[in-house]
Structure to design on (489 residues):
């Protein structure tokens, strides 16, 4: 009954109470009583008057209460609640007061740091883009922690710039200063034209890789434009003071650089489509018992007419017509690939005036067969300042997973630029074929032999890393790769 009496009296303290009594007479009590924390001197005086009116004549002697100043409270709680102004203690037994550490609650921290930085030197804005609407999320100086959100129609550049001007005007009215604007957006379907518009207006703009922004893995997370916009602002706030690894900002190419990339990418798409048509033709014929037919040969149509099924019959009429239409599409693709390669050769010839990297790579034996790869690797190598930059771009390395006694290998990392990584691996295989006496090839063969012919996949990735560094030295400083054979004139 004593415990129940204490709870009834303590319950009048409401939400400012720290409980120090467990339930029931069979449980060990922490202490028989409670503290009520007052957050100001005025509240302490009001509480003292209320306690005097209600309990001075009703409480038993054993259930007396004390009104304590902050210094007395610090001594009793061993400094556990140092930020509270004053407190009231009501207890049945003041000799049993050793509180558990988990019950020491800091109820009020007026000078604690806020969750979001408010000492801003600029207006931070994120753009969450979609096909129908653009969400503008901003955090301005003098506006506290709250982020403002404004929606404009997709493609309404004038409305977006008007909103930026309004945010700058409000910040200047609050603080009396004119602040710059810093904008962040995710790389995606909209490309880089919005970034270029902002830069033309004198606005600092950043494009971030959306996969590089950290997210919580505790549970399935909610995803909305509002949440993503706030996350982008938070990433920008962390990136600007000098934390480079909080996210990965893209190096936006110039319009000319972006246009030069289209040739190799279009050729890759056309080549993939050619493979699909060839496999389709072979599959249709194989279902009739026909094998060995090559759709890429020049006499493909003549050989098609002479084909027989596996049981000796001529090809059915509808099947032969379907294969003929597939060959029509295949021949169209071959013409388009030839036209694209003509454009590519002209671009490489024009590039020699600006950068000798592609031409120098073509001087190596075997690289004429991979001329498209030379255009990709040569452009990447020529733009690198350090070899480590190229390794970060393509990330051809192992992907370990180590934690305590757990030690696994997830294989070759798939991070970085996938096209450059694929091209480097293909170039490494070409290097082994055409540069069989070079030092890099001998190193690869020695390592594979040492492993008993195993781990070729890991070794070709290692060779690609070494080859990238060697090609960078060759292009930038003229250091010829040891044992490499140059193309004859």
């Amino acid at each position: 009954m004593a415990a129940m009496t204490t709870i009834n009296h303590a319950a009048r303290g409401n939400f400012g109470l720290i409980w120090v009594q467990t339930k029931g007479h069979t449980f060990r009590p922490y202490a028989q009583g409670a503290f009520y924390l007052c957050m100001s001197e005025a509240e302490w005086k009001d509480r003292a008057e209320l306690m005097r009116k209600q309990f001075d004549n009703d409480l038993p002697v054993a259930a007396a209460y004390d009104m304590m100043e902050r210094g007395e409270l610090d001594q009793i709680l061993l400094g556990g609640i140092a930020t509270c102004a004053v407190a009231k203690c009501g207890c049945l037994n003041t000799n049993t007061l050793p509180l558990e550490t988990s019950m020491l609650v800091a109820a009020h921290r007026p000078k604690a740091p806020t969750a979001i930085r408010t000492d801003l030197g600029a207006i931070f804005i994120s753009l969450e883009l979609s096909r129908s609407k653009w969400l503008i999320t901003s955090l301005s100086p003098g506006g506290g922690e709250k982020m403002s959100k404004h929606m404009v129609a997709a493609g309404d550049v004038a409305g977006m710039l008007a909103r930026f001007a309004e945010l700058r005007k409000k910040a200047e009215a609050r603080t009396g200063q004119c602040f710059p604007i810093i904008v962040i957006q995710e790389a995606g379907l909209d490309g880089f034209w919005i970034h270029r518009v902002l830069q033309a207006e004198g606005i600092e703009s950043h494009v971030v890789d959306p996969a590089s922004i950290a997210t919580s893995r505790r549970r399935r997370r909610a995803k909305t434009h509002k949440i993503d916009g706030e996350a982008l602002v938070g990433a920008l706030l962390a990136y600007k003071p000098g934390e480079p690894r909080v996210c990965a900002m893209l190096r936006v190419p110039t319009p000319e650089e972006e246009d030069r990339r289209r040739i190799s990418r279009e050729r890759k798409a056309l080549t993939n489509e050619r493979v699909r048509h060839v496999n389709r033709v072979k599959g249709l014929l194989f279902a009739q018992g026909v094998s060995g037919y090559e759709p890429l040969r020049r006499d493909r149509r003549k050989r098609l007419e002479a084909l027989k099924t596996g049981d000796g019959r001529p090809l059915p009429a509808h099947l032969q017509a379907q294969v003929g239409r597939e060959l029509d599409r295949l021949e169209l693709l071959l013409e388009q690939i030839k036209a694209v390669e003509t454009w590519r050769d002209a671009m490489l010839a024009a590039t020699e005036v600006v950068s000798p990297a592609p031409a120098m790579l073509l001087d190596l034996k075997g690289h004429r067969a991979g001329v498209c790869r030379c255009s990709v690797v040569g452009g990447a190598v020529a733009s690198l300042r350090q070899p480590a930059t190229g390794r970060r771009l393509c990330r051809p390395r192992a992907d370990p997973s180590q934690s305590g006694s757990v030690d696994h290998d997830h294989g070759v990392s798939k991070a970085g630029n996938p096209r450059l990584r694929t091209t480097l691996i293909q170039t490494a295989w070409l290097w082994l074929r055409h540069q069989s006496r070079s030092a890099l090839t001998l190193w690869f063969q020695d390592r594979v032999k040492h492993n008993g012919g195993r781990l070729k996949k890991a070794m070709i990735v290692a060779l690609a890393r070494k080859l990238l560094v060697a090609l960078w030295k060759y292009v930038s400083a003229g250091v010829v790769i040891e044992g490499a054979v140059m193309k004859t004139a």
